[in-house]
Amino acid sequence: MSDTGAWGFTDDRGVALTAARTPERVVAYVRAGAALLDLGVTPVAVYGSGHDGDVIDPVKAGGLEAAGVLYLGPGRSLDEQVLRELRPDLVVDVTYDGKSPYALDEAVADRLGVPSAALCVGNELMLPTIIGRFGALAAALRPTSTVASPGPGSGLTSGPGPGTGSATDSLASAEEALRVAAGRTDVAVLALSGAGSDQVHLARPHAWPELARLLELGARLLEPGQGPGANWLTADWEHAARLAPDLVLFDSRANAMAPDAFPPVGHARVAPWNPEIPPSPAAYARFFHAVAEALDA
Fold it and tell me: Is the separation of the CB atoms in 192 and 268 below 8 Å?
């Protein structure tokens, strides 16, 4: 494809998107926008989810604030006139069910007359494939750039932007560091999101692609137990303590309880986990290095 020819991309719902030329003005859900920025595509603006407020969550933002990318507030309540004035030619969201965009009603993009892409971040796909799909979209938006792929199993042979190859190398290095750290310790890890003084959401590791990847790399993540909830088991803090973790990965997003406010979970030490890490090699490399350091602490 060339910048002046017809553009096309098939998203993870199987929707074939087309445009007369390569989109240049991308508006994205904050998680997707942060990933695209890492991959060399700077959005003109990003929007949040129903968990977000009028100020961008710095944990979810990645490098967006430093890049001066405009934040529009939660997607379900954004001002469509403001969005229209930005003249977007592509909207990029994520999907957890492979059917619907997560944070913005697709009808908004329809009313604007622009294509809307939704890329899967749910557990239907393995983490390397999720990273690879974002790389594929970024490559389609920067079709003249060719750099290293995000890694085996990604399905991506080229990608966009300066530094992506080094980010891929960094991800491989981070995964190896985590594999080594997990191999020399027997640390029991519990991932959770604090919901209040009497309630906590305990992550089911296989429901989260990055936690499933930790398991593949040898980390010992604890299962929260039987009960309702596909992604989380909602329980009290006493239940969390009975699981006897050595390390708690706490939800570091602004909508979750900070570790200095929730009850101690036994004698576990804590380390941050963002359940909405931007799906880019650089962002996951930082996370895996941090977990490796926490395992070794």
Answer: no
Helices 164-183 and 209-216, packing angle to 10 deg: 60
**Contact (CB, 8 A) for 232 and 201:** yes
pLDDT at 100: 94
Kindly list the strands in the beta sheet with 70-74, ordered across the sheet, starting from the edge strand earlier in the chain.
70-74, 45-48, 26-29, 90-95, 116-120
DSSP 184-253: T---EEEEEEEEETTEEEEE-GGGSHHHHHHHHTT-EEPP--SSS-SSEEEE-HHHHHHT--SEEEEE-S
Query: How far is it, in rounded angstroms, from Cα 88 to Cα 83?
Result: 8
Distances (CA, A) of 218 to 57, 73, 129, 181, 196: 31, 39, 19, 9, 31
Helices (H) and strands (E) in the chain, counts: 9, 13
The residue among 248, 253, 249 whose CA lies nearest residue 277 is: 253
User: Tens digit of pLDDT for each residue in 237-291?
Assistant: 999 999 999 999 999 999 999 999 999 898 999 999 999 999 999 999 999 999 9
Tokens 């080229």 identify what position? 158
Percent of the chain having pLDDT more than 90? Answer: 85
CA angle 105, 65, 260 (to 5 degrees): 90
Q: Are strands 7-10 and 232-235 parallel, antiparallel or unpaired?
A: unpaired
What residues does 221 pair with on adjacent strands? 189
pLDDT of residue 30: 98
pTM of the model: 0.90
> Tokens in use for 251?
């939800």
